[in-house]
Amino acid sequence: MSALSLAVVIPTLNAAATLGATLGALQGDVRRLVVADGGSNDATLDLARSNGALVVECPPGRGAQLAAGAAAVEEDWILFLHADTRLGGGWRPVVEEFAANPDNARHAGYFRLRFDTPNPAARRVERLAGWRARALGLPYGDQGLLIARGFYGSLGGFRPLPLMEDVEFVRRVGPARLRELPVEALTSAARYERDGWLARPLRNMACLTLYAVGVPPRIIRTLYG
């Protein structure tokens, strides 16, 4: 493994069902693993520690958890990753190449969304996510985010929002400074299978629209859970 100074920050809340696979895909390829936990009462913390992760316990809320995890690292690069997302094979050389380019010290990278199901509806949602990220500069958190720690700090980091923390942050990064990385972010389809492959994207779009017109995230969370 090269000397890439990389930390991975993963926010969790009762994520034992998926965290093991996410951490397993990272083993040996990162300098520091940080699990920022918002109060899990399942096996999440045991899984994190048994995989060598530093556990940071903080109040629940993904924005606050991401910020707490980032504050605990000193590495040059941070990869923010959801607990139900595991990176596809070959991710490490792609990340190394991105980090080695001096121009990317003020850019951020995200991965290609892929759901862990053969359902054709999942392919449609993946294409929509790819278009949204490329055309609008709005990758969601389940696509991961790779960013230099200095650049992250200059942007003010993640804010303690109850919802839309990923959208709020990448809007500060700006579309011109976002880069798609040629690696899949394999994400659990459980939420879409539970809520519906049409209903959940519509719900997400409604949240995004309300946020874009200035509705506070706490109200959006109250409306949509």
Description:
This protein is of the alpha/beta class and 225 residues long. The protein has one domain: Spore Coat Polysaccharide Biosynthesis Protein SpsA, Chain A, CATH 3.90.550.10. Helix content is 43%, strand content 20%. It contains ten helices and eight strands. It has an eight-stranded mixed beta sheet, sandwiched between helices. Helix 1 (16-24) packs parallel to helix 2 and helix 9 packs antiparallel against helix 10. It is globular and about 45 Å long.
The strand order across the widest sheet is 3-2-1-4-7-6-8-5
Measured on Cα atoms, how large is the radius of gyration?
A: 16 Å
Q: How does the helix and strand content classify structurally?
A: alpha/beta
The biggest sheet amounts to: 8 strands, mixed
Mean of the pLDDT scores? 95
Low-confidence stretches: none
Helix content: 40-55%
Overall shape: globular
Strand runs, count: 8
Looking at CATH, which topology would you report? Spore Coat Polysaccharide Biosynthesis Protein SpsA, Chain A
Reading the helices and strands in chain order gives EHEHEHEEHEHEHHEHHH
Strand content is 15-25%
The number of distinct helices, counting runs of at least 4 residues, comes to 10
Summarize this entry quickly.
With 225 residues, the protein is α/β, with parallel strands linked by helices. The protein is built from ten helices and eight strands.
